[in-house]
């Protein structure tokens, strides 16, 4: 009798989770449909773009949160990329709406397929539009994926912009633990790690990544103000180059890509 009750409880829980997932997917599709209608109304009207972008931002947060609770990793990664894209938009342009429509198409595909897809996360992120924090119609963007691991703030925004202006695709995460998941799933070409992080230092994260078979060949660099001889960097693996904040950033970034045989 106890076993029957346990099976019944598990069945009820499974049915409840299935219903929650079905409602979550349906709500996401409904919201995307409504947003697409709004985008159709504001094309060419710059003053009306901001409310649409705010609504899309709420959608990205809702989908990312729901995907996390339902273990829909591919949907969560796509929603995170959309959130990250929107954070770079200071002044909306028509090109931003065109990019957002691509994001919404991808999210619709995933939601239609139960939150999963038939491709790898590494392939998925490379067909999503790169960040465009400014009107850069003619800016050449190469297919080099950079993952920036750094706390949110003004400094991160500046570095994100510098990486974008060098022509690379950049996505940011704030914690080393989220970074680990993103690195394993999306396989970025280069991971740039801040030396100062919450919970785990950038040096420790780099050392851990270099020690693990699945990530040891991932290109990575440490961003810091210190010279390599500084005591805080003594455990940094020798294969991990340093990118210094400031005027030499672009040169150091190019050098790091060369060192890792990425360009």
UniProtKB/TrEMBL annotation:
Keywords: Phosphoprotein, Two-component regulatory system. It holds the Pfam family Response_reg. The keyword Phosphoprotein applies. Residues 145-263 form the Response regulatory domain. It comes from the Bacteria. Residues 17-121 form the HPt domain. The keyword Plastid does not apply. PROSITE patterns: HPT, RESPONSE_REGULATORY. InterPro entries: Bact_response_regulator, CheY-like_superfamily, HPT_dom_sf, Sig_transdc_His_kin_Hpt_dom, Sig_transdc_resp-reg_receiver. PANTHER family: CHEY SUBFAMILY, STRESS RESPONSE REGULATOR PROTEIN 1. This is Response regulator. It comes from Fodinicurvata halophila.
């Amino acid at each position: 009798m106890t076993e029957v009750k346990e099976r019944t409880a598990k069945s009820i829980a499974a049915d409840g989770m299935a219903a929650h997932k079905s409602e979550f997917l349906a709500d996401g599709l409904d919201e995307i449909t409504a947003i697409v209608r709004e985008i159709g109304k504001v094309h060419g009207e710059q003053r009306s773009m901001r409310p649409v972008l705010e609504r899309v931002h709420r959608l990205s947060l809702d989908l990312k949160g729901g995907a996390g609770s339902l273990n829909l990793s591919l949907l969560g990664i796509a929603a995170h990329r959309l959130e990250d894209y929107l954070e770079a938009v200071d002044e909306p342009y028509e090109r931003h709406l065109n990019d957002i429509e691509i994001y919404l198409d991808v999210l619709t595909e995933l939601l239609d397929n139960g939150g999963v897809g038939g491709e790898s996360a590494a392939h998925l992120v490379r067909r999503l539009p790169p960040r465009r924090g400014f009107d850069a119609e003619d800016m050449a963007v190469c297919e080099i994926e950079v993952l920036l691991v750094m706390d949110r703030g003004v400094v991160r925004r500046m570095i994100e912009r510098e990486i974008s202006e060098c022509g690379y695709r950049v996505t940011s995460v704030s914690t080393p633990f989220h970074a680990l998941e993103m690195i394993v799933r999306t396989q970025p070409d280069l991971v740039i790690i801040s030396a100062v992080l919450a919970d785990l230092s950038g040096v420790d994260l780099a050392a851990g990544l270099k020690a693990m078979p699945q990530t040891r060949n991932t290109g990575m660099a440490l961003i810091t103000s210190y010279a390599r001889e500084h005591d805080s960097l003594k455990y940094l693996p020798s294969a991990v180059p340093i990118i210094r904040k400031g005027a030499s950033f672009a040169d150091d970034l190019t050098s790091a890509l060369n060192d890792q045989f990425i360009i």
